[in-house]
UniProtKB/TrEMBL annotation, chain A:
The chain crosses the membrane at residues 20-41, 53-81, 93-112, 132-156, 168-189, 209-233, 245-265, 285-301, 313-335, 347-368. GO terms for cellular component: plasma membrane. Keywords: Cell membrane, Membrane, Transmembrane, Transmembrane helix. It comes from Sulfurisoma sediminicola. It is a multi-pass membrane protein. InterPro entries: FDH_cytochrome_b556_subunit, NrfD-like. NCBIfam families: PRK10881.1. Belongs to the NrfD family. This is Ni/Fe-hydrogenase subunit HybB-like protein. GO terms for biological process: anaerobic respiration.
From TrEMBL, chain B:
The keyword Nucleus does not apply. NCBIfam families: PRK10882.1 (NF008134), TAT_signal_seq (TIGR01409). Keywords: 4Fe-4S, Iron, Iron-sulfur, Metal-binding, Repeat. One of its GO terms (molecular function) is metal ion binding. The keyword Hydrolase does not apply. GO terms for cellular component: cell envelope. This is Secreted protein.
Amino acid sequence: MTTHTAPVPVGGPLLNKTTFIAGALIALMAAILLYRFIFGLGAVTDLSDGYPWGIWIVVDVMIGSAFACGGFSVAMLVYIFNKGEYHPLVRPALLASLLGYTLAGAGVIFDLGRWWNVWNMYWPWSANPNSVMFEVAVCITAYIVVMWIEFAPVFLEKLGLKDLKKKLNRFLFVIVALGTLLPMMHQSSLGTLWVVLGPQVHPLWQTPFVPALFLLTAIIMGYAVVLFESCIASSAYRRSIEVSLLNPMAKIMLGVVAAYLAVRLGDVIFRGVIGRSFHLSLEGLMFWLEMACFVAPFLIIGTEAQRRNPARLFVAGILLMLGGSLLRMNGFLIAYDTGPGFRYFPALPEILVTMGMFATEVLIYVVVTRRFPVLPREA
Amino acid sequence: MSSRRDFLKGALAATGAMVGAGATPVQARDTYTRPPEAMGLLYDATLCVGCKACMAACKEANNNPPEFNTVDKLWDTPLDTSGHTFNIIKMYRNGTMLEKDAEINGYAFMKTSCMHCADPSCVSACPVSAMTKDPVTGIVGYNPDKCIGCRYCVVACPFGIPKYQFDDPLGRIGKCELCRHRHKDGHYSACAEVCPTGATLFGRTEDLLAEAKRRLALKPGTVAKFPRGRLRPATEKMLQGQADGKGEKRRHGWRDEPDQIYEGTVGKYVQHVYGEKEYGGTQVLKLSAVPFEKVGMPDLPPYSSAATSETIQHTLYGGLLMPIAVLGALSWVAKRNVKPDDGEEG
């Protein structure tokens, strides 16, 4: 299994059109956040007591962290299911995950109304183990630390700290195991968050199976993001696409999608609420739109030949990222009804901050892949 | 309800098996019931005259600023509860609005404030124990010194009660705490203290529930007696002032007031005490002549969502048994598959 080539820095200039645009978006975000911390959440968001959570939570944290499951999904494949051939995909995926999660963690702080009290989350006398949010917060914090350790060899290689890297390697298996367990825990719990909302969430989404739905879609979105990123990175850096790896990985991904569809449909049928999806309502429409995103990839990359086409892999990846995003958006925003009189549509500053978060991710990804050994050496 | 629980167990067993260990016994947590000495309010919409004295008293007792919704900005005119308004009387209107407490061509009032659930979603949701339920009084209280402002309580409450002060960079959560800060001085909830008709009545929830059922059994249109202020239990310990004349006379810890019972006409009640069973029961109870869903009270199941949520959490993470077992299994597998020179070869 040691036939693949070691990762190397891509090299090249750090200042280009992409990094410049990303930098501008980040500066804009910083200005808005400064304003938010001085004048409060109401000054820059469309949040209300009917929609106390907006896109900073649902997109930046819930969807952002699911997009960041590439590292988890690929590492699980390589180290738990012993598919060593996927090893070249681990580092780029792990980097994206590291960035996604670290930023999701930062995003939470931007959204916290009383952020200076956040230490209570880690203070045993304040802890509430009954709270799903408590479990999610502690687990995500631990995972961010674990991922930095998992990724540390990249920096240690660059800095030439061979001894330290050897020492770390001895314990790496525990870190890898933790790096698989922790996302399983909090990605499922992110879904459990809406169980306590009870009848405020439409029955097509309110189910005790929601932890399973979130876990499966997080794994799916992890693979989908790897497809997406591999295609983007290849075209941006003018590298060949690792189709020989992406093709079989996409097949595994479809297997997980099939399992997800079985659980999702089985749940709504068994609970007797499938009929609600045929009502002429926004919820009914969104349910089927969400389902379509998970079904369509079977038509697009269902066959071996189709999966050899990078464009098809790319589209299927985007659809599955969208499907998982819709599941989260539907349950927390669109199919969440707190009573009459409330509306929510993200305000421009909210959208700009979310864009700034993704821009930060892109900027750091470009800098790190150009200067540190992350992407596999070109053959 | 048992089928709901069975389904929950099935769902959990399946999720558990998926996470890697299906052997953990699944025990559903039941919905909590009210503590025996739970305190609360009884709001009787048929007695409410819509004077909104309770709203003014609530603002004063909780040191809340007025909220303006008219051009002249002369009066406190909140349209709903908010981070600065913990209690509001809303009006139901239909057609010609000629008859009070009639569903058709009538009008009616309804109080909106914290219901003080027996098994509150906000308390279960709060990650930092800033929202807590007093084990004796059952009052759901808020501690801003712990609160991180995540607003999960705002999202979770089926009554839409905890509200966040979005207009303030140091914003807090605002909600009714039954004036617990005034109890040590012998004062009870300000809204009940000032209510001229006893439409809002303070007391032990058990006594209030009995009073509500007494009213439902009365014949509509007849004359009956109604208490005002605080509902006194049958027997109450009197505490005299101290020997030197200092200190006040107290009744069971409350300031001594003269009996305030008056005669009034019995309303055409809907035969339902709202809050007796909803979401496992609440400590604030309501009576109305107009169906409850028409006056903004949600139709809720007799069990709490907190019970469902905590059952899932503790099944998966109780004692960290399952996570540790899975970690052990994953470590064992990973040890075989992670090569020591990983990343250096090539």
